[in-house]
Structure formats: structure tokens, C-alpha cells
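Example record for the data management plan.
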Amino acid sequence: MPRLTPARRRPRHAPPKPPPSRERPAPGNRATAALNIAGTWAVSAALAGTELSPPEVREAFSAISRQAIGASFGSTVLKGILAGWLIALLVWLMPGSGEARFTMIVLLTWLVSVGGFAHIIVGSVEASFLVLSGEASAADYLWRFFTPTLLGNVTGGVALVAALNYGQVASEVQS
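Corresponding structural encoding:
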């Protein structure tokens, strides 16, 4: 194999790629989301279709899970906005949290749970459990949980990122 001379070497730095856009989304984002949702269904299948837990635990999980599809479309969207905002805040705080990273994750995800907010991944375990247990239909999953929750999570996350980004450049924009 011929030895590469300095003129034949590849450049040290590749030219910058354009940022993701609607026409060119970030690679892997859709696949990651789809795999996360598939994982929630796998967990639900294990909980609903096996003797992994006693019947009274499955009944308690059913009672908790009914809350995931029990609210109206609009209410679920609003709960999703708050969850999306909190998770986006968590992502924004991570780089500066240092050794408190674990505490930040626990605290903010706990707030999503205790607040009863709708999160697309966490809530998907609950809603898909109801489908796999025969207590809800796939249409219930799609229209009473998935669509309003996703809409809310995206709206909340994007709103927080937009506000934070604007806050960083507001003084330059106004001058």
C-alpha cells in the first residue's frame, strides 16, 4: 500500500454539515423515538402477558394506567406541554449540572410523575398495557394518549428551547 504524503492525506476537519431541517432531519431521531416506543410495548407485553407479577399488582397497574387515557384530548395536550417543558429543561440543565446530574434527572422526572403530566415514553407503557390487557383499543392508544401527548410534548419542549434561545440573544436583537 502506498504511503500517503501530506498532499494526499484527507483534511483534518470535514466541512461543516448543514444543521438538521425539515428537509434534512437529524439522523437517528426518528429511529430512536420508534425504538423507545417499541420498548414500551415490549415492557407492557411482559407485564400484561406473563405471570411476572401477581394479579393484584397487575390490577393496581391497570388502575394507574387508566389515568393515561382517561383525560380529554385538550387536557392531555396541556399535561404533555408541561412534561415536554420539564424534560427540555432537564436537557438544558444537564451540561452545567456536573456531579448533580443524577439528582437533576431524578428531581425533574419525579416532577413529571407527581404532577400527573403526560410524557410520550413513560405514559406509553401505561397506555399500551391497557391495550395488551384488553382494557383499551389501539384507537384509544392512538387518539386518547399518543397523539395529544406527542403534540403536547413537542409543543412544550420547542417552546422552552425557543424561549431560552431568544433569551440568549434578546439584547442583540433589540438593539
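Summary line stored alongside the record: The longest helix spans residues 138-174.
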